[in-house]
């Protein structure tokens, strides 16, 4: 499995549609300071479901939309499409090529799609987390982040390993189920109180 291509349109400094074809192995992005190298990495994180504006080096989520320059007006939406070569079947989906896309509108709306079919953010997160790539983004090590990994607590380190092993999805589902059960128990106890009152 490898990232085969990436297309950015209206994402950060990439106002016009920009298509990048990647090969297996190591890819280097070179360019002068401020030319948008890190924006490409942000686009990868974003299309894979990143929800934290800070992780994308912005103040709010809309900051990923091209904000305009002296010669070019701001745009109303940002779009990123990533195509993954899945010929080794690493992603649990019956396609040798998987395209994931994310669009965000300035009014706050978002759209997600897998192979051109609209889906939920959760579908993308679950698809990727089964292969060890995920929302927690330990697959993207940013500048200065190595230090944070080295200084991580044993619990945080376990989180990295769990995500790589694909167990994080199940842990999150378990936590959600526990929260639902707790809510249910609170409701039941309220019903019991009311029953006692009525009697
Ligand atoms: P360095 O080598 O210094 O780390 P870089 O090549 O990684 O730089 P980036 O940080 O990717 O550069 O890009 C920064 C540029 O992106 C800045 O010029 C900034 O103004 C521009 N930029 C970021 N967000 C937006 C946006 N929403 N609209 C327009 N331009 C943006």
TrEMBL record:
Top-level lineage group: Bacteria
Residues of the full protein shown: 1 to 199 of 1198
Source species of the chain: Janibacter indicus
Functional note: Required for chromosome condensation and partitioning.
Protein name from the UniProt record: Chromosome partition protein Smc
Family from the record: Belongs to the SMC family.
Coiled coil: 167-194
Assembly and oligomerization: Homodimer.
Location(s) in or outside the cell: Cytoplasm
UniProt-annotated binding residues for ATP: 32-39
Entry comment, domain topic: Contains large globular domains required for ATP hydrolysis at each terminus and a third globular domain forming a flexible hinge near the middle of the molecule. These domains are separated by coiled-coil structures.
């Amino acid at each position: 499995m490898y990232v085969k291509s990436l297309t950015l349109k209206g994402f950060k400094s990439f106002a016009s549609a920009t298509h990048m074809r990647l090969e297996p192995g190591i890819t280097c992005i070179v360019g002068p300071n401020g030319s948008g190298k890190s924006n490409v990495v942000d686009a990868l994180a974003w299309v894979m479901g990143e929800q934290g504006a800070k992780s994308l080096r912005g103040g709010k989520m809309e900051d990923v939309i091209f904000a305009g320059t002296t010669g070019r007006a701001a745009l109303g939406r940002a779009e990123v499409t990533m195509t993954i070569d899945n010929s080794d079947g690493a992603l649990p989906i019956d396609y040798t090529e998987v395209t994931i896309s994310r669009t965000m509108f300035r009014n706050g709306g978002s759209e997600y799609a897998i192979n051109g079919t609209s889906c939920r953010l959760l579908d993308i997160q679950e698809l990727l987390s089964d292969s060890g790539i995920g929302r927690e983004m330990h697959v993207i090590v940013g500048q200065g982040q190595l230090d944070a990994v080295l200084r991580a607590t044993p619990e945080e380190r376990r989180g990295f390993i769990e995500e790589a092993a694909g167990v994080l999805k199940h842990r999150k589902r378990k936590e959600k189920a526990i929260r639902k059960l707790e809510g249910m128990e609170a409701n039941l106890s309220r019903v019991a109180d009311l029953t006692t009152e009525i009697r």
